[in-house]
Amino acid sequence: MISVVFYTLVVVLGILSMGFQMLASRLLSPHYGSSIVEWVWLISTFLAAFSTGSLLGGWISNRPPAQRGLLQGIAATLGVASLAVTAFWQKPMLDWIELKFIPDVAQMNDQGSGGMNAAVFLSCMALFFVPVTTLSSFGPQCVGWLAARGTPPGKASGVVYAVSTFGNIAGVMMTVFVLIPNFRVSHLLDVWLGVALVSLTGLICILRSAPKPAAK
Amino acid sequence: MKSPRILLLAVLTLGGLAPTLRAAAIPSIADAGDYSASFDTQYNSLTVEKVGSVVELRARSRRGEFLESAVDLKDPLTMQVAYTRTLYAAVFFQPNPQRALIIGLGGAGFHRLFAATYPDAVLQTAELDPKVFELCQTALDFKPTDKTPVALMDGRMFVKRDTAKYDWIILDAFRGGYVPPHLKTEDFYRECAARLTDQGVFISNLHQGTELYFSDIKTIMAVFPQVVLFNPPESGNVIAFAVNYKTPVITDSAKWGAPGTLGKVFGGKLDLVKVRTEHIPLPAKDLVDAKVLTDDFAPVEFLDTVKTNNTAPNK
């Protein structure tokens, strides 16, 4: 039973991560258009967050149990809080960044201008980097949890990343083909926040559960 | 160890040269020969084809090739694409434009007659794709001047940041046959409305045949108190004209300026009497269930896939 819940939560985290990228593109385009520059920064930010999150999660999973529990709580809190910032304050933040870095037409009269790049980069970092980093940090910890329960480390790693990637695919598909056509992006961000709160709480409970005793 | 490096070098070199090789396929404008050349740009897959003196600029889309623009190099003032003629119905509502903004350059088929007709007016263009601008000059013989400047940037960003007021704002931005969602929303139309002069006209090139068409009209109507539609013959285009004011009434065609008088300024290159007959009523019945598009809710790509049976605009 616990395995079913565990893998379901891994899928949900995958959905939250990549589905969030599709929502992110909708948040940025009214401010920066739909140029290739916007996509460069958006994709790079998400990849950087996946990378940083994996490093962070790997480090957390090797901490002593008490410290690990604390760090998991901090990561989850940070993830939910940053999603809340995106859900509730993305519009004023994007307005402020856009005006600050691109005050007039002269500042943006070519797509590679410094102001445009800086504005999109800062927007991506402010709104998307922290949530995705923290969500990604749970991947290596899930591998660690499976390994502690007797699954060979290589297999544990392969299974977690396969299931998580399945969640990524489901997230992209569902967001683009079902959610965006039927719901407001602002409402979807609220849903993301709620689902992240519930799923991270559940996952932390599982990760803190005692490993199965080793077979004799 | 050397072989992979040489292979990599060869791939990179060929990759770097590829755009140059493709670009070299296009002859100079003076060349009388027919040709067809394709270009993959940052945003589009474009084809430039010259047959006789007519050059067409087409973009590949999921529905096949989409004609963006066409220019007769021997007679550039005569517009080859029906809907570009219809854009000039704006004179019925604002006959003396001093400043106009067009979002989407295409082959600049519209620009040449505008520049010839209103030599003192400014026609500002916002075009996202630098290659479109390049091809427009090299293949379609467009020569931008200080009266027809082109800004290479997203149209919405231009509208938000530019402080000038315009008598005509024309939205004709397509990417492979569809308009990006952020140029279809109520929020964007409000930004355009704020850039219009008191008697200014907002003009949008719409496509019939899908649910998106009805959402487009309803979204424009959510911002502008008066909207008038024109349907160029034998085309799927409908051109929407919208103004910021409630009076005088523009929806009654009997009150528009006489096309004979207005048409004289175009030097015989535009038949406004014919354009006037393209006026169609609003599809009121179909607008009831249409969704207004906003930045927060803009399923443009999906509405564009839902076909409607009743493509007749007056239904």
Which features would summarize this protein structure in a list?
heterodimer, A: 216 residues, mainly alpha, Growth Hormone, Chain: A, 7 helices, 84% helix, elongated, B: 315 residues, alpha/beta, Rossmann fold, eight-stranded mixed sheet, 11 helices, 12 strands, 29% helix
Could you provide a short overview of the structure?
Chain A has 216 residues and is mostly helical. Helix content of chain A is 84%, strand content 0%.
Written account of the structure:
- Chain A has 216 residues and is mainly alpha-helical.
- The radius of gyration of chain A is 19 Å and the shape is elongated.
- Chain A has helices at 2-32, 36-61, 65-101, 114-136, 138-148, 153-182, 185-208.
- In chain A, helix 1 packs parallel to helix 3 (65-101).
- Chain B is an alpha/beta fold.
- Chain B is 29% helix and 24% strand.
- In chain B, the strands form 2 sheets. Chain B has an 8-stranded mixed beta sheet with strand order 7-6-5-8-9-11-10-12, sandwiched between helices. Chain B has a 4-stranded antiparallel beta sheet with strand order 1-2-3-4.
- In chain B, helix 6 packs across helix 7.
- The longest helix of chain B is centred in the first third of the chain and has 22 residues, at 2-23.
- Chain B is globular.
- Mean pLDDT of chain B is 85; it is low at 14-24 and 310-315.
- Chain A binds chain B through residues 26, 29-30, 32-36, 102-105, 107-111, 180-186, and chain B through 42-43, 128, 130, 151-158, 161-163, 175, 180-182, 185, 187-188, 294-299, 302.
